[in-house]
Structures
1.
Amino acid sequence: MDGSPFPNTDPTLFADAGESMAEVRSRILGLPAPDMDLVFVDLWTDPAVRTPDVAFASRYSSLTTPAPVDPGCTDAWTANCRITIHYPTHIHPLWSVDRSELDTDGTTVIADHTCTSCHGPSDAGGLAMVPADQLDLTDGPSTEEPEHLKSYRELLFPDNQQIVVDGVLVDELVQARGPGGELLFQEDADGNLVLDTDGNPIPILVPIGISPPLSVGGARQSPRFFDLFAPGGSHEGYLDAAELKLVTEWIDIGGQYYNDPFAVPE
């Protein structure tokens, strides 16, 4: 019926016969312009039915690290505007952003939520430590792939669990087990046990594998990471909405090291 709103929607947004909600919105409020940011305003809920949802916006301009868009595109979108996320340029810098919580005097640090303060191979005194959750987000190339930052490999590739032994961070080793759970020992070519100088069999030691916190399958396939920042999570509030949106977008498009092949250094 002409002039009737959709059920439970704001009656000022009334529909002509055959119109979709998008057509109603455009006719009454005008065509919305494309936007590089995520902006939500609840235009449809009828206040007489319930309170409209709270408006929110997650803007690249609020990032303290490099944004993956041309600054001009956040003010005026054009057909040439693109969001291009490179891990070393846009994601890795997030881990070293100062997230210190200061006391009322403005100088005394009462808590430091900077990612690398916990997720690193050494403590504040320079002594070796196991990175929190076995995740090293500090600077430096990966030993597995020197063309990648180690934080990228730690986030996306399987790794070995580590411990500190005599002040050195090393892979933790455990005795291997056979198909039936039996402990395995070194044997010679004839299948005889190899003994040490005390006459004891020598165990076969293997590292403990751990899975990465992120999956190139996307944010929904990476709960180990994103659940930490959800309400009630141990890292709630450590990353702001714009930062979490950036990481989500990056992993949702495959977690590539470079999102533009022409940006890859020769």
2.
Amino acid sequence: MDVAPEITQRAAQPYTGISAWVTMAAVGSVADRIPEIFGWLGARGIAPVGPPFFRYHVIDMERQLLVEAGVPVASAVEDDGDIRSGILPAGRFAVMTHTGAPQTLIAATSALLDWAGARELVWDVSQTDAGEKWGCRLESYLTDPAQQPDMSKWQTELAFRLAD
């Protein structure tokens, strides 16, 4: 069952991640690199401070998307090849926790967008030549698949930044 959406204030958060321009069909190839990020951090003795996430930066469903897989950390780290450091922005977010298999996230995202639209909330998003550029649109993976093999019980937090 989904947790009802709410508006929350989030602090800025350092993270380490990998980003790429991909088609919608290849989005999973970036998310599949999350274990690589954990390995990179572990090799340097850096502990994550939150669950891994998937972030949509620029969305053009007909062409390409700029997406990123990342892991929150206590402080920024030095970039190394594909792995880079960044800061998730602070601000007001519309947040919802969804329980279900990854393929059900599209419906959950639509429900969050509808909820916000019914309240006339405005997203931190702008239209660019490359597509919709989001200030911060996250899927945070709260369930460890190694601990919960039943995908219908996986929990994912959706957090989309609202305009100031």
3.
Amino acid sequence: MTDQATAGPAVPAVLPSAKYVRRVVTWTAELAPDAVAVSELDGRTWTFARLAEEVAKHAAAIPAGARRVGVHAGNDNDSVARICAVWQSGASAVLLGALLPDAEAERRLHEAHCDAVLGRDGARPALEPGRSPAAADEALVVFTSGTTGRPKGTVLTDAGLGRSLEGIALGSGLPREGRLPTDPPRGPSPLFTPLAHMAGTLGLISGWYLGKPLLIVPKFKTEVALRLIDEFDVNVLKLTPAMVYDLARWPEERKLGKVRSVTVGTAPIPAATREEFERRYGLPVLRNYGQTEFSGAIAFERFEDVARGRRPPGSVGRIAPGVEVRIVSPEGTDLGPGEPGEIVARGGGSMAGYIGPDGRPQSPGPQGWVQTGDLGALDADGFLFVLGRVREMILCGGFNVYPAVVEAALNTLPGIVDSAVAGAPDERLGEVPVAVVVSERELPPYEELRIALRGELAPYEIPRRIVRVEALPRTENGKLDRPGVLRRIDG
């Protein structure tokens, strides 16, 4: 479809994924100007026509020829307009979280060689005029969470984001083309995760692509979420593990209205939390495994699989449409079913690369294969299991200890609702596993815990220390801060 086709008398029934992020506001404002685009909790509701006006104002402030523009983004309508304005101008949006310290924001702006910065007070003068190395098809730069090192700028393209949107549509059982937010009306998609992170941005554009208005929520609060579900007839929830935990533990008896689908991502969810939620609300929690580097899912649980009992314990589901996955040894050899190794993947919305020292994206790997940094295994039926990070694997006296395996065993003990395992230095064995746990009750003596774990774990897998904490250490976007585990142990 061309721009001329959208301007003519024949109104298309669907929107293509190609160049979708750049044109979504102008396309939809022309085809369905009165459709709701975004709403905030304070009652501010913008139609696509109103959003198009705000986007045009911000776009006019962006210097001509800018190719990378930093965007300070919170969870509000104005931030949505700023992000879309950068896309409409033809530039790439470099996302900066609202809570990011000034020094870290400046570091990221310079690392990305941004031409300009768009904030609440308009556009700042160019940082490095004319030096932005962004390619023509680049659309987005998102910095990783930095759980295993300094955050890295991940470069995503128009085409990659389009493929990710098509995969989301197919995974939802819909045609691969976008839908207009017109009759029949669809319930809004609440956006609980920060817009400056991949989950938030993808939630924004995928909601529109599926024909749903967006309800922007500044911060998740259980009582607010329950009210919104009833008030707006929400039928799909996209949550983090912490949100699922809070809803499962809400003290009042509640139902989830018209909700028919609950997906969870951004971090692994403890089996006990998922099971408690499912018992209480009678809805399956579908796990989703993805990375910023893929602008979406690598694998996810299908509702039909869960309904038929095809849910291997610990699995994150089957591979997403358009994505290929291999499990490889440290030497790069492909491994067979059930053999643990590093997950490598390609296809879908995979990145152009990480930003290098010169600001240009570095190739992610040979033939498009991206090393995820995650340990995992595929079974004979194509279900994927994630065992932890490659760098987080603990080498204890020559034995491999996978944190996810130990955490799963800890979470079966009475009273323990969540746990995190890390490797602590040991003079004799190199590393030993240690753990922090969130528990509803005081922990019994360590020896009792060790005996209870013997039936589930090998001796070298049993944590040498287990410390109770109020909450697991997490990063801003909800991922486990594993170095923080050791700080809690030492503290």
4.
Amino acid sequence: MTDAQKRPAIWTGHLILHVKDPKTCAAFYEQLGMRPVEVDAKTSVMALRGGTHLVLIGKPDSVPSAARFDLMVDDHEATRSAWEKAGIPVSPIATDARNGHKIFTVTDPEGNTVVVNNSHVVGVV
């Protein structure tokens, strides 16, 4: 069986976040390590690992909130440290009581917070 055959048959395509300024937020998420696919004043699309896209949709009346998705990184402590040194607002590392994962949050320029998990990948992805 090839690695491709061992991978799950389904994955996330798009994560959506409503923001006032998609261009400014795109620059922020690029600083985190996402790759810009399309950036403009109405909608910006950022690529993550595995083909997933973060779609930043311009909505002038958007209110900062906790994102309805989370992110995952390979080296949790090093990533948090690098982001903090770069001036990116990050919380202290904590343990999520629901599942035992190590987490911290990152706050984008509009005040939206995103949970960042330590990697808990199982098998080939």
